[in-house]
């Protein structure tokens, strides 16, 4: 087998793509590839793309344009497009950009080595199937290399919710859960290699049903792995938050008090048009139950402004909901039309209205986020340290609530947990000193 060919992967979009890129790199490791940080010395370039918002495909084409000279200098260079743009526009990419040698959709990554071999043989290779076989099982031999203290682990993929704005049900397919025993095996392996915190990933992670106890059951079983210290999960839909998962926030010490629970909008009229299948009131009641289980829970959300037919009054309802919930962090977007989704057919709001609402929404969220972060000053948090900071003698890690925390220390090692007394709240992080 040829050795030490170089693979450059550029990853766009969500954490699941980060996880998928790792797994693809591992799969290609079996073909003699090692990863490189630069496209210039690569034998294969793979773009792991995202289709969630506008201009995603355009970004891919412009990135591909930047590799044209590399392909001219190095005819053996193979270029591949993976991820959700590949799934949505595979044929079109091949047609529009002849320098692309292979296209692989998110459910076919285990076939990447074969696709690469076909590309090497001079074929154009495309695979955007939704095969029955378990891609993670086929990809299972993760090399035993040492890992950093935190890792992602995909437990669920796909979405059956069909929110009117979203391409995910089309690009990632129907909801599928990985069997719990395979997840446990992968988790134990990661922990043996140094991982102390796992973030369980799924487009609809709390709809996970690969364990008889659902996601809460899986979390409780993962919590029995002694050297695994922290568990997180993302992203959840409010309607799949069952009683046991709510309870786990109160009684499972390893489950961190931070929850990403997108609501998208605060107006019932818009929530209905978005096909979210819940009201603002139901969401608020759910947050109350979660906070009853875990009073210090930090919440994070996603918001869309400028959805078709959103009035100023509807928008105000979103601001009111945000005021009521108090988010520790949030992501907000202008609505963008996605081909093939129901909302793309509706009358669109003017761009300047969307811009204005996004600005006002982000101002509120930033203020709120900052206030909650400032409230940490004077408190003691547990920090899982991950790496050296930017300055000599500094270490950086994450609090339970996912704040970045800096501490001056020569003794802390990555992967260790320490209590830190918070002394200062900066623009995007906290700092403090170790509690003896
Ligand atoms: N326009 C704007 N934002 C979107 N999102 C998903 N689809 C769209 C769209 N068409 C946002 C949602 C989702 C997050 C991942 O991306 O807020 O929760
Ligand atoms: Fe998209 Fe999330 Fe709605 Fe599924 S639940 S359609 S992934 S926004």
From TrEMBL:
Keywords attached to this entry: 4Fe-4S, Cytoplasm, Iron, Iron-sulfur, Metal-binding, S-adenosyl-L-methionine, Transferase, tRNA processing
Pfam families assigned: Radical_SAM (PF04055), UPF0004 (PF00919)
EC numbers: 2.8.4.3
Residues covered by the TRAM domain: 374-436
Record's cofactor remark: Binds 2 [4Fe-4S] clusters. One cluster is coordinated with 3 cysteines and an exchangeable S-adenosyl-L-methionine.
Annotated residues for binding of [4Fe-4S] cluster 1: 14, 50, 84
GO CC annotation terms, alphabetical: cytosol
UniProt keyword annotation of Transferase present: yes
Compartment list: Cytoplasm
PROSITE patterns: MTTASE_N, MTTASE_RADICAL, RADICAL_SAM, TRAM
Record domain MTTase N-terminal: where: 5-121
Catalytic reactions on record: N(6)-dimethylallyladenosine(37) in tRNA + (sulfur carrier)-SH + AH2 + 2 S-adenosyl-L-methionine = 2-methylsulfanyl-N(6)-dimethylallyladenosine(37) in tRNA + (sulfur carrier)-H + 5'-deoxyadenosine + L-methionine + A + S-adenosyl-L-homocysteine + 2 H(+); N(6)-dimethylallyladenosine(37) in tRNA + (sulfur carrier)-SH + AH2 + S-adenosyl-L-methionine = 2-thio-N(6)-dimethylallyladenosine(37) in tRNA + (sulfur carrier)-H + 5'-deoxyadenosine + L-methionine + A + H(+); 2-thio-N(6)-dimethylallyladenosine(37) in tRNA + S-adenosyl-L-methionine = 2-methylsulfanyl-N(6)-dimethylallyladenosine(37) in tRNA + S-adenosyl-L-homocysteine + H(+)
Record bears the keyword Ribosomal protein: no
The Radical SAM core domain, residue ranges: 145-375
Function text: Catalyzes the methylthiolation of N6-(dimethylallyl)adenosine (i(6)A), leading to the formation of 2-methylthio-N6-(dimethylallyl)adenosine (ms(2)i(6)A) at position 37 in tRNAs that read codons beginning with uridine.
NCBIfam families in UniProt: miaB-methiolase, MiaB/RimO family radical SAM methylthiotransferase
Complexes and interactors: Monomer.
Protein family membership: Belongs to the methylthiotransferase family. MiaB subfamily.
Protein known as: tRNA-2-methylthio-N(6)-dimethylallyladenosine synthase
Lineage of the organism: Bacteria, Pseudomonadati, Pseudomonadota, Alphaproteobacteria, Rhodobacterales
Gene name linked to the record: miaB
């Amino acid at each position: 087998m040829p050795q030490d060919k170089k693979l450059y992967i550029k990853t766009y979009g969500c954490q699941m793509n980060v996880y998928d890129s790792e797994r693809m790199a591992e799969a290609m490791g079996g073909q003699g590839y090692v990863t490189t940080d630069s496209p210039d010395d690569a034998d294969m370039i793979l773009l792991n793309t995202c289709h969630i918002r506008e201009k995603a495909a355009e970004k891919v084409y412009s990135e591909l344009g930047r590799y044209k000279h590399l392909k001219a200098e190095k005819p053996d260079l193979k270029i591949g497009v993976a991820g959700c743009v590949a799934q949505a526009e595979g044929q079109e990419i091949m047609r529009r950009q002849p320098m692309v040698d292979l296209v692989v959709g998110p459910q076919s990554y285990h076939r990447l080595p074969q696709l690469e071999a076909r590309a090497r043989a001079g074929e154009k290779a495309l695979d955007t199937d939704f095969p029955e076989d378990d891609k993670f099982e086929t990809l299972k031999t993760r090399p035993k290399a040492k890992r950093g203290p935190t890792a992602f682990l995909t437990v669920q993929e796909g979405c059956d919710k069909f929110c009117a704005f979203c391409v995910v049900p089309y690009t990632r397919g129907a909801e599928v859960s990985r069997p719990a025993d395979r997840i446990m095996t992968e988790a134990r392996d990661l922990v043996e290699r140094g991982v102390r915190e796992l973030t369980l990933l799924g487009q609809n992670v709390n709809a996970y049903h690969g364990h008889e106890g659902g996601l809460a059951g899986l979390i409780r079983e993962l919590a029995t792995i002694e050297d695994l210290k922290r568990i997180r999960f993302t992203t959840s839909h409010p309607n799949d938050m069952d009683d046991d998962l709510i309870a786990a926030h109160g009684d499972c010490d390893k489950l961190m008090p931070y929850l990403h629970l997108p609501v998208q909008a605060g107006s019932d009229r818009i929530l209905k048009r978005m096909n979210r299948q819940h009201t603002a009131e139901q969401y608020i009641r759910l947050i109350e139950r979660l906070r009853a289980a875990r009073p210090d829970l930090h919440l994070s959300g996603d918001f869309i402004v400028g959805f078709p037919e959103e009035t100023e009054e509807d928008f105000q309802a979103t601001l009111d909901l945000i005021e009521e919930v108090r988010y520790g962090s949030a992501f907000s977007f202008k609505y963008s039309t996605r081909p093939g989704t129901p909302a793309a057919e509706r009358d669109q709001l003017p761009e300047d209205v969307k811009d204005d609402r996004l600005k006002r929404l982000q101002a509120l969220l930033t203020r709120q986020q900052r206030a909650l972060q400032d409230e940490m000053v004077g408190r003691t948090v547990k920090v899982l340290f991950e790496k050296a900071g930017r300055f000599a003698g500094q270490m950086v890690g994450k609090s339970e609530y996912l704040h970045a925390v800096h501490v001056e220390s020569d003794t802390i090692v990555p992967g260790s947990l320490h209590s830190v007394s918070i002394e200062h709240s900066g623009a995007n992080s906290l700092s403090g000193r170790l509690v003896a």
